[in-house]
Amino acid sequence: MSGAVLAPAGLAAPAAGRLGPAWRGLVRAALPWLLPALLLLAWQAGSMAGWIAEEVLPAPSAVLAAGWELARSGELLRNIEVSTWRALTGFAIGGGLGLGFGVLTGLSRLGERLLDSSVQMLRNIPHLALIPLVILWFGIDEAAKLFLVALGSFFPVYVNTMHGVRSVDPQLVEMGRAYGMDAPTLFRRIVLPGALPSVFVGLRYGLGIMWLTLIVAETIAANSGIGYMAMHAREFMLVDVVVFSILVYALLGKLADSLARLLERLCLSWNPAYRSA
Amino acid sequence: MDGMVQAPARAAGVAVGIRGLRKAFGGPAVLQGIDLDIPAGQFLAVVGRSGCGKSTLLRLIAGLEQPGGGSLTLRAGQDLLAPAAAVRLMFQEPRLLPWSSIGGNVEVGLPRGLAAAERAARARAALAEVGLAERAAEWPAVLSGGQKQRVALARALVSRPRLLALDEPLGALDALTRIGMQALVEAVWRAEGFTAVLVTHDVGEAVALADRVILLEQGRVAMDVPIDLPRPRRHGDAALAALEARILDRLLAAER
């Protein structure tokens, strides 16, 4: 498999200067994958040559085979479903609250005085340090994972939303007032779009923390999900399954980030900084 | 659209009555008792040094600030009008919403409660007035500084204001674009008949455009000069130059 991935990139790269624009486009698209492909190849070769012990790091082919086995039994899909549901639900709760409170403290001085210092205090507690407490409160139920994910993704969304609302151009707000906009219109047409680039920064940070939190939570206390799959495999020394689980997390994380980027490009197409891919 | 414009013609403007108007922002008063009558349809230019209170006067007329004392009334015939309904303000910067299309930006100037189709049609008509009808669907970011200010003018005009307040809107433009914009503002004012109040630091621009120039000094009207010259006025005209020199002399004398 790794050989097949490498072949076009390896062939096309040195010849790029002399080839037509279609080839050059292909090379440019393949370039980010060159390094991972080379690494995979070296890994596979190292395993086959016996330099990398099977019980330390199984060969890519073995990891893939383990993944195929998990996919066929339906275990993989079930665990991905559970993990994705936890991640998205937790993020929706935490991110939604972060957005709401961020707008509130961004708009109102009273809201800021009342809430912001408390939130900043809480923010400085590593939310993963709460795991023992969370297990005492919720057991290893769904609620525990949702709580941790929501808590983790709340802060980046909150901080960036507040900052975004604060930094909306006051001249535009004054223009809106002078042109007779009422408060809801002012919010919808000026404050929210003005804050959006910053909100997206928070969203992407929050998504990162969402996966991180879920991985830790599922590894420590769960009976389903990808983290559980990895821990369960560890007990039986199934290193290939462990490595495969880690790869699935990487892929899911990348997928979430790509989705956020796409959303960003759709919502911020007015901004020259986001216009081109 | 032209038919709609010409029907009310000169009756469209409001008359401004200002009596003993005062305004302070914490410290010493910026305006210290201004008495001023602006007849309906007049083009008034307000000049003065930085900090003389000319922008404050304009913001009071536009209803963006509340008077600290005295009175300010807008009248059309016998009717008293609220600034929010009658006045549109053009700022020194275009202040366009970068996330709205050019047409959408012009629609900001329309009153609420109109059907979408009518909003778009009126925005288009206002853009046509400033020569940008074809650009309605584009983002403001693609426009030059002068074009952005033309969009801002269309946004100010689209609701057919009875008073147009201009806060140095041409100050940031290069010399050639500026002359073009001056001609545009004058043409629109002549076609629509609103009252215009232009705040500027450029005395040449003031005498070229206005029916009357007032000079503010330390929060008071220090000079009130009618400009009875035929339009269109030519740049570098001797009579204009003489008036400009008279006002500049007074401005510079205040400095010594």
Automatic annotation (TrEMBL), chain A:
CDD domains, per the entry: TM_PBP2
Annotated localization: Cell membrane
A Pfam family assignment = BPD_transp_1
Q: Which residues form the signal peptide?
A: none
Looking up InterPro entries in the UniProt record yields: MetI-like (IPR000515), MetI-like_sf (IPR035906)
Name the GO terms of the biological process aspect: alkanesulfonate transmembrane transport
One GO cellular component term of this record is:
plasma membrane
Q: Where is the ABC transmembrane type-1 domain?
A: 80-260
Keywords assigned = Cell membrane, Membrane, Transmembrane, Transmembrane helix, Transport
Give the membrane topology, semicolon-separated if more than one: Multi-pass membrane protein
Top-level taxonomic group: Bacteria
Q: Where are the transmembrane segments?
A: 87-110, 122-140, 146-165, 209-230, 237-256
What's the stated role of this polypeptide?
Probably part of an ABC transporter complex. Probably responsible for the translocation of the substrate across the membrane.
Family named by the database record: Belongs to the binding-protein-dependent transport system permease family.
**Name of the protein described by the UniProt record:** Aliphatic sulfonate ABC transporter permease SsuC
From TrEMBL, chain B:
Can you tell which superkingdom this protein's organism belongs to?
Bacteria
User: Which Gene3D superfamilies did the record assign?
Assistant: P-loop containing nucleotide triphosphate hydrolases (3.40.50.300)
| MF annotations from Gene Ontology | ATP binding; ATP hydrolysis activity
Domain spans labelled ABC transporter: 16-243
Tell me which SUPFAM superfamilies the record gives: P-loop containing nucleoside triphosphate hydrolases (SSF52540)
Output the Pfam families linked to this UniProt entry: ABC_tran
Keyword line: ATP-binding, Cell membrane, Membrane, Nucleotide-binding, Translocase, Transport
Enumerate the InterPro entries for this protein.
Answer: AAA+_ATPase, ABC_transporter-like_ATP-bd, ABC_transporter-like_CS, ABC_transporter_ATP-bind, P-loop_NTPase
Q: Which family does it belong to?
A: Belongs to the ABC transporter superfamily.
Designated name of the protein: ABC transporter ATP-binding protein
* The organism of origin for this protein: Roseicella frigidaeris
